[in-house]
Each structure stands twice: as structure tokens, then as C-alpha cells.
Design a protein that fits this description.
The protein is mainly beta and 98 residues long. 4% of the residues lie in helices and 69% in strands. It is globular.
Length: 98
């Protein structure tokens, strides 16, 4: 499904709404699937936002151990963790279905 995603946290810390509104919003296809992560030694449910405009289907965002917090109308809230430089940070996405 085509979505607009705004990450809520930076380095695991939640941003105020005014700070979030200044950050980049990612648009692409949302894909949620089970994935084996060898670095963790287990299977995880991961969510990706895939850039389809460039023609290469490149993931631009990804979180792991995804949990759906709520879904209403055309909006979702997903929570998981992201990996940056081999460090895991809590991350929550505000997702709008386009």
C-alpha cells in the first residue's frame, strides 16, 4: 500500500510534534513481512518503506519487531526498533495511507 511515514523518535527519544513536523516525511510502498535477521539470530517481523519513484525499489526506512499500535480511517501507528551503526533504537512511525 502507498503510504506517507513520519518517524516519531530520533535515536530512541520521542520528538515533540513541532520538531517532528520539521523532519523529513517518507513516501513509498509499505511492506510488512517476516524476515530472518542473521545479526540477531532470529526471525523478526519487519516493516519497510520502499521508494518506488526511483525505479529501483530501494528501502528508505526499516524497523524490526513491528507491532501495530492502532489503525483508524487511513492512519496507522507502528512501533519497533531500527538499527543505526549496529545500535538498536526504539522507533515509532506515524503512517498515513494515501
Amino acid at each position: 500500500m502507498r503510504v506517507k511515514v513520519q518517524p516519531i523518535n530520533i535515536n530512541g527519544k520521542p520528538l515533540f510534534k513541532s520538531e517532528r513536523n520539521k523532519r523529513e516525511i517518507y513516501v513509498g510502498e509499505l511492506k510488512v513481512h517476516e524476515n530472518r535477521l542473521h545479526s540477531l539470530g532470529r526471525a523478526v517481523v519487519s516493516a519497510q518503506v520502499i521508494d518506488t519513484l526511483s525505479g529501483t525499489a530501494t528501502p528508505v526506512l526499516e524497523i524490526y519487531d513491528v507491532t501495530l499500535l492502532w489503525a483508524e480511517a487511513q492512519r496507522l501507528r507502528l512501533r519497533g526498533f531500527e538499527i543505526q551503526h549496529e545500535v538498536q533504537y526504539a522507533q515509532t512511525w506515524d503512517v498515513e495511507v494515501l
